[in-house]
Amino acid sequence: MMNEGALPAMETTQVFQKGDIQWKQFKVDESTASSSSPPKPLLIFTPTVPGAYPVILFCHGFFVPNTFYSDLLTHIVSHGFILVAPQLFCKGLPMLEPSEVKFAGKVADWVAEGLQPLLPENVEANLEKVVVSGHSKGGKTAFCVALGYAKTKLKISALVGIDPVAGTSKYCETHPHILKGVAGSFNLNMPVAVIGSGLGPEKANCCTPPCAPDGVNHKEFFKECKAPCANFVVAKYGHMDMLDDETEGVIGTLVAKCVCKNGSGPRDLMRRTIGGLVVAFLRAQLNDQWKDFDAVLGNHNLAPTQLDNVVYIPA
Predict the structure, then answer these.
(1) C-alpha dihedral over 157, 162, 164, 168, to 10 degrees?
(2) Tens-place pLDDT, residues 178-199
(3) Coil, strand, or helix at residue 97?
(4) Number of Cβ within a 10 Å radius of residue 203
(5) Is 239 a catalytic residue?
């Protein structure tokens, strides 16, 4: 019992640190799949500890290889999630948006039948708890899949957009045009979290446009969501600051580190912040475990770096 006059204990959380669940990662494509081949090459992260785990389909950003998200995705898997990250473009060429959405839906269908045989013994993919997520252009792809632009056998239980972007401006949105400019216009019957970057709308230099321009960025996506929905902005970091510190390839490195406005702090803080927010939100919405999410809502300073515009609208 609390002593009279004592202050209530401050809620805390460990979601911003790596979890204690052992995991492994592996790649799957037509040459490695022992059963049904996936429609696109996949990078899969899975716990190795026996249990049933929610599945997250994660879509990469424009011109960004799926391997560049390894540190972020390993943070999430260590807290008890299976992640399937398709490589939606190949040979260095991004796909047109409708094709990317179509293939994301095909990957979701493959997950329904092809994922389980590849998982470690006694590890089960809980297909009653499937999440679509993505970063940048991939964030919009995730919204498109959730909105039904890609037909899939799986029922989507939750949606997480990480600094989603729908085009270069509100006058130049990529297809399909899902932003209507109307609050609550998304016909989504699921909980949604939108995590934005504070520096995304700023130019990196005089020669390149903003990577997450106003009018088509996280602000518009959250505005058009219905309850239950959550919004977070990682204030002092940029659009690409959740990527790995070490990236391969000239073009990939330019996209990851030079084209977008970046924060001045260590990228690890951005990755741990986003990873922790994803874990806390999904634990609350999928498992009815609210301790971590409530702790973050009650004390934004628990995050490794500054959070702005923290909003949660319950159902």
Answers:
(1) -160
(2) 999 999 999 999 999 999 999 9
(3) helix
(4) 15
(5) yes
